[in-house]
Amino acid sequence: MPNEELADLAQQLRMTGRELDLPLVATCADISSARPTLDAQGIPVASRFDFTDVGAGYWNEGDLALRNAIVAMIRHLGEPFYYRDGTVGGWRPIRVTDKLAQQAQRANYAVRSAIVVPVRLPCSVLGAVVWATDRPGGDVATRFAQHALMLHGLATRFVAACDNIAHGTPEIGPCTLTRREVQCLKLVAAGKTDGEIATILGLASPTVRFHMKKASAKLEETGRLRTAQRAIELGYVSSRL
Fold it and tell me: Any idea where the HTH luxR-type domain is (predicted)?
């Protein structure tokens, strides 16, 4: 049962945090949503975990993800990172502006150090799990180096389980775009009009529209922008143009 899996994973999150001396846990399965992530009984998943007194009930703050510095870092990173009194580090160098670092120190919910794991799922879903402590001291950088890979896998399973409860198991079928369809989608993602795409590819505008219509049908989307977005989500097109 999905809820039983979620309960087991939540227990693993708690136990792992205690073992690493990071006993406070914060979770979110979709930071784009102003509503808290719920389990199968309609209870906020985040309420399963202890967090700081200052941050109690954070999951009810609908605008938290819009103003929190750690969430801002989560949006830009695809790998785990650690935080300690304003210092941020990870598997590779992380550049954070002074303004964001200061913001993280001012509004830190009494968190002194933490390991943060962003989780990216299909359909542009972005979630995260945070293991933290409100006590000073401790070598979080060493714990990160030793355990971040394991935490990454655990966080991914947990967020995916939450997503499964909310949206069910996706049905995966074949979807084969042609080279020309992908070329058109890349140019749509770059902001080009049908006329501009036709000029660039040496095609007639109706031919461009034909390829886009075929791509939309294959991706089960309507409209050129939603089709391009779906192509980006599935890895046919990169948003780095």
Answer: 170-235
